[in-house]
Design goal:
Blueprint (H helix, E strand, L loop, with lengths): L1 H16 L5 E5 L2 E5 L3 H8 L2 E3 L3 E5 L5 E6 L21 E9 L4 H13 L4 E7 L8 H6 L4 E9 L4 E8 L8 E8 L3 H9 L2
Antiparallel strand pairs: 1-2, 3-4, 4-5, 5-6, 6-10, 7-8, 8-9, 9-10
Length: 196
């Protein structure tokens, strides 16, 4: 009896963690596919590479798309490593970074809600450097201090989409970022949305 229960448990776990077919998202002039390895994504999207692990492409509209992937300890120790070193890592995020334009975030918001027939949910989290509050002058110059607003849309059990104003350390260089998250825990998504 225990053998059958164990087999049934493994079947349920296996079915839940792997989709029956690839998930595709049509956005920003491309079709973004999950699951893929970094190597497959580099070939499929003709991605450029900057060591030690930045894979990206520049789109015709001036936006940049780069990969987030499941990395391991030591993946970035060699700043001159070949691009093929990380090809077996699983892609878990496509980050679309758009130069800031007035009204763009609202347009992207509408496009995503119409495409997926779901509403974005506004989230506001805080992130601080350490336990103590910073001085007012220092907190003005560091955009990661204080409340960090972003919006999330849970499309299904594997796909979540986030949108935010991307923080920048240089004044005047504003950007909007849309992240397509695949099979990630909520705390990982939150960390990405409130980080740089």
């Amino acid at each position: 009896m225990l053998r059958y229960l164990l087999s049934a448990f493994l079947l349920v776990v296996t079915c839940k963690s792997a989709p029956d077919k690839p998930i595709t998202v049509n956005f920003n002039g491309g079709t973004w596919v999950f699951p893929l390895t970094v190597g497959d994504a580099v070939k499929r999207y003709s991605l450029a590479y900057k060591p030690p692990g930045y894979y990206y492409t520049e789109m015709d509209n001036g936006s940049t798309v780069d990969l987030g992937y499941s990395y391991q300890s030591g993946d970035f120790f060699n700043e001159h490593q070949a691009k093929e070193v990380l090809y077996n890592r699983e892609v878990n995020t496509y980050r679309h970074t758009f130069p800031f334009r007035s009204g763009l975030i609202d347009s992207l918001h509408r496009v995503l809600e119409v495409q997926f027939k779901r509403k974005m949910v506004m989230c506001v989290d805080t992130q601080r450097f350490g336990l103590n509050r910073m001085s007012e002058g220092l907190s003005r110059s560091l955009p990661n201090e204080g409340a960090v607003p972003y919006e999330l849309m849970r499309v299904d059990s594997l796909l979540t989409i986030g949108i935010r104003h991307k923080p920048s350390l240089t004044k005047g260089k504003q950007a909007i970022e849309v992240c397509l998250f695949y099979n990630q825990l909520q705390n990982k998504i939150k960390a990405r949305m409130i980080g740089f």
